[in-house]
Amino acid sequence: xxxxxxxxxxxxEKKFQLPADIRHHFLTVLRAVAGDECxxxxxxxxxxxxxxxxxxxxxxxxxxxxxxxxxxxxxxxxCGIPKTKEKPAWIVQKSTELxxxxxxxxxxxxxxxxxxxxxxxxxxxxxxxxxxxxxEQSHRNYIPKISYADNWQQALQITRPNVxxxxxxxxxxxxxxxxxxxxxxxxxxxxxxxxxxxxxxxxTSEEVSxxxxxxxxxxxxxxxxxRTETAPLYLMAAVSYQLELLNC
Length: 248
Fold this sequence. Notes:
This protein has about 250 residues and is α/β, with parallel strands linked by helices.
């Protein structure tokens, strides 16, 4: 069933008009007619089943759908800006499907691609649109927030996590495999988890040392060295496994 976000709409109103973009997609693209139904996420971030009343896009709320698709913890990814525009888009789309709540792209010492100030807003707007599409496709209750930070310190400050991890390839090379599992086991429901990743070429030892001094915990992601666009997805899958599958 088609899933849309209408976060300005209060669930207290049982009948209302769909906005132009949703109305066009539902009625024109999908050729919905009176009596057809879709899902809407409203202002309270709950999903509701609504029924189309007429060909002008008026709908009626049928019932609340209790299904909850969000991870038990608010998971935030801080990613060193990759080289190409395709990689940030891939990270946003796939991690949204896996349940991420927020993604911050930041400049790392080894970042090759820098987001110029005059083009930053357009890049973020594009990525935010990708996040919304992925959230609709995966029937999320939240659209992840996509933002930018000048450096990792700023990313840490604006996200304010309860637990912060840094994925470091040297931990993997040295055979460290337990730290990530241990940290995920300690997480409590509704906490905020930040996981930070370097760009191509990884993080420098100086960056990681400073991150440790700031209270971040270095973890390995298994025995293999992962690409910058793959590592965040590994982390998201591990969070889901630990907090959703093992604890179900």
